Every structure is written in structure tokens, then in C-alpha cells.
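so i finally got all the pieces together for this one. its two components total, 991 residues if u count the protein bits. some of the lines might not be protein, just check the labels. i wanna see the whole assembly predicted at once instead of chain by chain like last time, that was a mess tbh
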Amino acid sequence: MIALHYAGSALSGTNLDVSGIDVKNNSVSIIIREEPPQLNSSRATDSISGMVLGHVMEGLVRMGLDDRLEGAVAKRWEVTPTHATFWLRKNAKWSDGKPVTAEDFVFAWQTALKPETASQYAFLLFAIKNAEAVNSGELNPSELGVNAPDPHTLVIELARPVPFFDKMLVFPTFLPIREDFYNATQGRYGADADQLLYNGPFQISRWIHGSSMTFERNPHFWNQDEIHLDTIHVPYITSDANASLNFFKDSKIATTGLQAENLTEAMRLGWQIRQHRDGVVFFMEFNHRPERVTGNLNFRRALQLVLDMDELVYKVTKLPGYEPGVSLFPGWLMGESDLLRKEYPPEKIRPNTAQAKEYLQRALQELGLSQTPTLVLLAGDNPISNIQSEWVQQTLKTELGIDVKIDKQIFKQRLAKMTSGDFDFVLAGWGPDYNDPLTFGDLFASWNKNNRGQYNSPELDGLIQTAQGQLDPGVRMRAFGDIQQHLIDRAVILPMYERGVTYVVDPRLKQLKRRVIGPDPDLSRAHIDAGGQ
Amino acid sequence: MSATDLTQADFAALPRQHSADQLSRPSLSYWADAWRRLRANPRAMSSLGLILALLAFVTVGPMVWTVDPSVQDVDHIGISPGADRQVTLTTPFIPWEPEALTPPTPSTGNPLGFTLAQSATTQSVRLTWADQDSPRRLYRNLFAPEDTGSFGLPLADLDTPYFEDRLDLQPETYYYTLVALDAAGEESETTATLTIDVTRVISIAQAQERGLIQPDESAEIGQTLKLAWHPLGTDYLGRDMLARLMYGGQVSLFIGLLAPLAFVFLGVIYGSVAGFLGGPVDQAMMRFADFVVALPFLLFMILFKVVFGIGPGESGILPMLAAMIILLWPAPARLVRGQILQIREEAYVSASKLLGATTPYVVGRHMLPNTLGVILVTITFQVPSAIFTEAFLSFIGMGVAPPTPSWGAMCNEGIKSMLTRPHELLFPAMMISATVLAFNLLGDGLRDALDARMRGAE
């Protein structure tokens, strides 16, 4: 059955012959790297599912074109330390014409927390009362602190004060699911185009697995004025950057990413190159387990003083849009009233080999070692991390005489080795889950499962608790500033860079939105300007 | 002459003659004849010369070209052979602190006041412009911008009136364009473009580190020097290609020569024993060989890596050698067994046995020498395939560990920048091709030369 279906899809997939921008049909074509594994919002984890769901579903709130939070299904809302209340608009409808009600949110969140759903992002809901207990199976889902007193009011009881609760709701896990439809799909919810009920600006009209997708305008969507495109095609699903570039050259797709080696050609062709920082911060994470040399502060400081991330970014990696790392907190995070990094500028460490050698001597004395140990650098197996790890290897050899062995692993294996602590230092990255500095700030809390180097400092834990629990933005932001300073002072990590993306867009396509939080790219508000050539 | 002329003396036995017929030419042994025929084959001889040259390149080469193959020069990444090496001495790089800077005032010709703050070098390009409320977007282009909308590579969106560009600066001409953004963050029509020639610079400390000037040598700012010479350019981390080719060849040829020698030796012993004993023993031995042929090489390579305890980041050369020896011997073994089976039935072997020759004598005197030609040819043909195997395994990342180079690993790295910096792929690929071709042609020549049936033929 499955094999048959596949053979058929490959055929029809090649038949989807559309151009990048079709002015007559008011349609746009884009490419996606991989097919979404499934589109059940309570279980979605990857960015591609997030992108697709951002076009076909709508949550309580959304990120506007100006990167500010705006109401979507919710008309207005209110967050207090104990409660969050959302008033839903009455004209929001599902793609079968029935209204979107507060019950749909209650059901979706209960589903996400059910142990059998096994949602990886269930922890995002832990701010809600009883959520943790529901997730561990101790309480019935109906005891979750979310209620719908009437179809258009949603009241959420909070387990602890969460000042940024409304900002978290942008994440796909918080999208509504209608109970009767969900049950009718018999466990296949989100697996196919007809197994999903839509309440967003578009609906999936065709989904040929592994081959192509088509989104068509949802006639029941409440906010038709903001939607301009009739159709969005995904004629190809490939992660091959060169194939994507060639499709763009042939006008088969409206936008493509650029690799460093294509930049000269893009400049020669006079393309409008654009840039976007995707919000991911890369850093070198040390293994802080006591049996490792990297658990020694002076040893880490020695490494901190010889690895010049400016050199790495500007001369070795050489990718445009990359910003040399100075802090765990990326530059785009907002602080109290301005950017966090402007309110609390991080101290920039200048390379200093002489001082590094002193630290190294001190570290060796403390560790009782007569000679420098060989370190294991865990890294991903891709061209960029190969270059970076070889640069680290050679820099540490020439500057400090430290031998480094490079352990190249694929993502899953690297994660497994990080979890088991089988490394001295690792090239790691972290992307934000919600638009608050805490998404980065609690990373090295002793209780955080993603703290794979097992850094454990009561001082840092205290700061993180302040940032989590306090409501006053000023106090919170000061805590983040202190966390940032702590990470630098104790050389917990060495920030390497913030990643950038370089891309081109067909000049006729306007308002294609690239984002850090929320669907990326977002074409839902885009329009075609035929004269924009 | 009549019969009566015969005397008794005519019937006396002749003295025992000890010398055979006197040959007027030196005796031509099998090997001398083969060598003579090989020498007459220009293809084989030039291949032999090439192989000797390659061996000299990887063994004597590093003594002559004493550049460390793992030293990275981040100022000199991916340069092609024969690139310009002119460099000017300058002060060490200090991050720009333009807080005290007075932004330029706009003029009619330059409404944005876009100016170059200091002379542009490969350390940094420092740009400044008039301070205004709305943000600016800065672009850099390698080509003169023609129409609006394509100014090249966007560097940053800025609300400060200055920017320091340090991204991969090469001694070239750049076109920097400053675009004013409107309140909505969209680009406006107000733009300004600067054409900037970047000069290559190096600080005195860096020059000393790279051995361009001696520590006690007096050096002045502004003095021009020549950067280190890289006859074949550098790779993606600024390492000398020539030195890496030499050291990489050591690994490739080590595997390429040692592995075939070892497994052909193993195969010869196994095959001759099987062939000589014959019967059920031969059957059993050859079925075991068939079994070994069926084992998947790559899987065993990975298993050996584990068994040998080769941790991450360690060289996989030893398990590679072991895997090749343990898995590749059946081919020569089959070949030798076939030969031995054939020779065993030859008349001269039967004659030798009838005359009372012992088994070791028959094997050593008659059988093995007659298979030596086949064995030699097998070795020469196995060398290129072993080099290829090493190259392939290093290419997929199972061979040498960085920073040790090998030709295969270098190809793997070079292929990523094939379009922009082809020399990084071309040189190691050429080395592999030349070695493989030379061994193949030599093997061809040897096969002809050692063929006993062609003995004496021109």
C-alpha cells in the first residue's frame, strides 16, 4: 500500500510545473529542505513543521511584520502573576466554517501534555498550573489549569509568575486542535492534507509525501484583508543548496539561500542579496564534570584567552552575516526598553597568549599534571565544523602546546555523547524557543537537561531563579546581565558566533518575512508586485 | 684415406671434457631477458621513472621543502599558485573605538557624508558617515554597482555612524554602498558608493611569527615584504599545499605499497599450499577463500576500527592496513593456486620428481619461479587499487585523522571549494591519478616482459 502510494507520488510530483512567481495565478513557489515529519501541532518540534503550521494555523497571538506580538485568534489578553486571560474574536473560523472556540485551545494543550503524546516541547506548558503533573501522568488532563468559561474566553491559571507567558504562545505547541476532528482522524491527525483542520490564512490542498506541497488560500480565514497570495507551491523538497540555487536561476522558485562560494556569482549577476540572522548562537561548551581537565577554571581561562573568535569568523569561516560571539545572549534579544546587549554590554575578551600560558601553568599545578593533556573536541560532521575544529586544534597546539583530538559525529550521536559526557569540549549551538532572554539564560542551570557539560554553580542557579521568578523587567534584565557576566568570568562557555543566513528573493515578491521566532520564512502576508523588477 | 691409416691411438678414449660449448654471447637468464624487454618498453620505463620520482617526492621532498604541513596561516587562506605576495608592515590590529570620532558632515555631493576613516587594509576597512536618526544599511560589492537594488553583499544594518569591516578582506577593489533606510526599515533612494582599494598588511609581530623578519631585525612600519612562498598555493586553512602533498603522499604510498606486498605474500603462500596439496585440502582451502571474498570490506574496516580501540580523532591507518591484508588475499591466492595446479602437471615437474627431487626442491626450483611473473604483475596492479582504497576511505572520513594529510582526505576537503579554488582539489587528484596510472602502466610492461612465451621476442 505504501509502496504503491509512493510510486504514484513520484510521478505526479514531477508534474507540478510552476514558476517561482506566477502573476496571473497570484501564486508563489518556494523550496523546503525537508518534508515536515507530521503536522500535529502538539508534537511538532522542527523548524519546517513550524514554518508550514505558521501558514496554515493560527494561535492566540502571532508575531507581526514589525516583530511585535499582535493578536491573532485572541482579540485582547491580560497576563497577571496568577492568571492569563484571552478574549477570542468571534469571527475566527476553521476551514469547515465552524468557529474557533476556547475549548479548541483547552483540548490542544491537554493533548500536548498527555504522556502518550510524548511531546518534546511539553515543558513549554509547564508554566500552567498542574501541567507537570499531567505530563508525568499523575493527574488527569482535565485537571490542567486551563478553562473556557464561555466559547470565546480562555482563562489560564499559572503555576508560577511568567512575565513572558504571552510571548511563548507563538510556539506551534500552543496552536488549537478541534476535538471532534482530532478524534475522527483516529491517530492520523496531521499526517496528511485531509487529516488536518485549518484555521490559518492558508490550507494544504495537496501534500505528496517526499515530493511537493500546495497551500491554497483558506476562504474561511477571518482576516482576508491582510492575505494577498492565492497559492503557495512547494514544488521541490530538497536540502541540496546547489539544486536550490539552480531552481532560482531557472525562475522555478522565488527565494533561495546562498552559500559562501555562490556569493561572487550572485554579485556579478546583480542579485539583491539579503541577510538575516536566524537567532542561533554557537559556542564551545566545556565538560565541567570534575574528572575532566576542562572542569578546571584556570584551564578554561587559558583557552578563553587564545581562541580569537574574530579570527574564526572573519578569516576562517568567512561567511557573511556571521557575528563573532561575545555572549550567550544574541544581539537581537530585547531587554527592558532597548536591546539587552545594549543595556548590559558584554565584556569582550582580547586574546593574550602570555596570560593564557600563566593560567595554563596554574591549572596544571592545581590538577597535579606534569604535562598538558590531550583534549577531545566533539564536533559535527559537516564542512563548516570541520574547518572550525581544525582551526581550534591548530591554534591550541601552536599557542599553548595542547594536543586536540577531533571527534566528528553526526548530530544524533554528538547529542548522545554530549549527554553521556564523553568529551572535553564541544562545538554546540542553541536556538531560541520563545522571545525572552530566558530561553538562553537557563541553559546552564544545574537542573537543565540541556546543560550537557553539567556546569553546577549555586551562584548561577540563583541568578537564573531570579530571572525566572521575578516579574519586574528591570530586576530580570539585571539578572540576565549578571548571568552573562558569570558565564564570561567563569569561562563556562566560549561564545563562537551568531549564525547568519544570506539569501536572495525575486524582486517582485514583497513582504517576505524572515524571523527568529515564529515561522521562517513567512509568506502569509507577502504579495506580488509585477512591476517590481 | 683408407682404413689402414687408422692407428691404435685413434681408438683411445678422449680425455673427459669438462667444458660445455663455448658461448660467444653472455648467457641470458629469465630475469635479464625480462629486464631487457622492459627497458625496451618506453611506457613502462617512464612509469618506473615516475614512480621513483614520486617516492623521492614523498621521502626526500620534506627534507628539501621544510615547511610544516599543519601550520595555518589565516591571512593566506586558499590562495592559488603564483598569487601576489607583496605585503606592507603595519601596526598590530587594535579594535576601532570610534566613540570619540566626529562624524563627517553631509555635503551636496555626498548627502550621507559617506567617507573612509582610515586607509583600507586587509586588517580592517573603517567607514564613517553623517550621524542621522534613521538606520543605514551597508553593502560591499566586488563589481561596480550599476542600478539600484543590487549593491552586493549586505554587511550590516546600523544605527551608529561608523562600521569596521573585517570580513575576509583581500587585496582587491571593493565597492561599499551606504543606503539610508526609512522608518519601516525599507531601503530609500538615498545611497552613496565608495570605491576602495585594499592593501595587504601584516603586523610586525605576525611577520616575526611567520619568519618573514628575524626577531632582532629592525623593521619599519610601511616597509614592504614578501609573504611566504607557496608554490602550489594554500588550502582552506592557509596550509602549504606542497608540504601537505608530500606528507599526504607518505600515507598514501605507505598503504599503497605495504598492503599489496603483505596480502599478496599471504595469498601466495596460501594459494601454493592449496594448489600443491590438491584434493580435498585444496577444496576446503578454496571454499574458505570464497568465504573471505564475500565479507564486506567497509563493514570490516569499521569493525577493525572498533576492535583496535581507535578512538575518535585517531588515525585509522592501522585498521585500514589490517582490513586490507585480512580481506584482500584471496585474489592472489586463487591466481597462484591456478598456476601451481597447472605447473604441477607439467612434464618437467614429473621428470624432476622421477629423478628423485624432494618436494621443497620442486616447489622452490620449478614451481614458484614460474609463478613469480604472475605474482609481480598482481602486486603492481594491486598497488593502484590499494591507493584508491586509501583515498576513498580518507575521502569518506574513515582514514587519517586531522591534521595529518593524505591525498584522499585532501581531495575530500578540496571538493567543497572546487568552483572557487580548484587548485585544492586538482593537485591531490593529479597526484593520485599520476601514481595510479604509473603503477598500471608499469604492471602492463611487467606482464609483457615476464611472459615466458614472449622470451627472446622483440
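Residues 44-69+237-457 of chain B form a domain with the MetI-like fold fold (CATH 1.10.3720.10).
Chain B has two domains: 44-69+237-457, 88-203.
anyway lmk what u think
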